[in-house]
Amino acid sequence: QTRNDRSRILELGSSSARFRVPSPEDAGANPNGQDSEYLPLVPHDDPIYNDGDLFCADFEQLADGRILAVGGTDYYAEPYVGEVAGERYGLIELEGVKAARVFDPYTETWSQAGSMEYGRWYPSLITLPSGRLLALSGVSKVIKPVYPERPVDSGTNVRQLETFDPATGTWMTSASGANRSLPLYPRVHLLPNGNVYYDAAGQVYNPLGASYDEAFWNIAATFDPVAQRWNDLGVPGLGLGALPGLPDLPGDNG
């Protein structure tokens, strides 16, 4: 039986180490729930004891020392077969949750921040020069990514970008011009000029190892968070020399 993972605090003392339990233990897993994006006309079963797992979330430390945990896992059965001898059976589905949770190391407690517009499983977070955090990629349904309410988004990862404001605890979804399909946990880095560099790498897993636009993940790119636009840099490793648009690094021969 699946359940939400538990969080722990590891205290490293001079002679021994011990674990403490923060509150709530499971990081306050998705307390209000969310509408799972079921396939149409398919029976489903969504138990409440595993609907906000920290598994497959991403974490980033805020400037004040708190830790932001974004996304995670909701397990449910789709399709649901039925109950036999008191046990429920069905084909498992994993869904990315919209929840964002904040851990305060001073009080050792978890609290809920504002929820994202899109559920994300395996997203990446990166801190921008403004202090805000950018969430990229993730997937809303892992095994069967079909969304009856938004069919254009079916068959691929979350293309929409969202920005978190630590001062207000709220999210803002970027304009459609900033949309980009990326692998799960895309490898992104902050450049000296404030742009975000995607180095054409990530976790190529969903759905079942493929996405209909997966070939485009091989293109490195930079994202301008002010102008809200991407600049393609080409495919790394093709022997074409240094990628245009990147700053020269000391000792870099291209």
What does this structure look like?
By secondary structure, this protein is mainly β. The chain has strands spanning 9-12, 17-20, 58-61, 67-70, 73-84, 87-96, 100-104, 109-112, 124-127, 133-136, 162-165, 170-173, 188-190, 196-198, 220-224, 229-234. The protein has a four-stranded antiparallel β-sheet, with no helix packed on it. It has a four-stranded antiparallel β-sheet with strand order 9-10-11-12, with no helix packed on it.
Short account of what is shown:
This protein is an all-beta fold and 254 residues long.
Low-pLDDT parts are 248-254
Average pLDDT for all residues: 88
Q: How many runs of DSSP E, i.e. beta strands?
A: 16
Beta-strand percentage range? 25-35%
In which order are the strands of the major sheet placed?
A: 3-4-7-8
> What percent of residues adopt helix (DSSP H or I)?
under 10%
What structural category do the secondary elements indicate? mainly beta
What would the principal axes of the Cα set say about the shape? globular
Let me know the largest β-sheet. Answer: 4 strands, antiparallel
> What would you report as the Rg, rounded to the nearest angstrom?
20 Å
Q: State the separation between the terminal residues, measured CA to CA.
A: 52 Å
Order of helices and strands: EEEEEEEEEEEEEEEE
Regarding quaternary structure, how should these chains be classified?
Answer: single chain
Q: How many alpha or pi helices?
A: 0
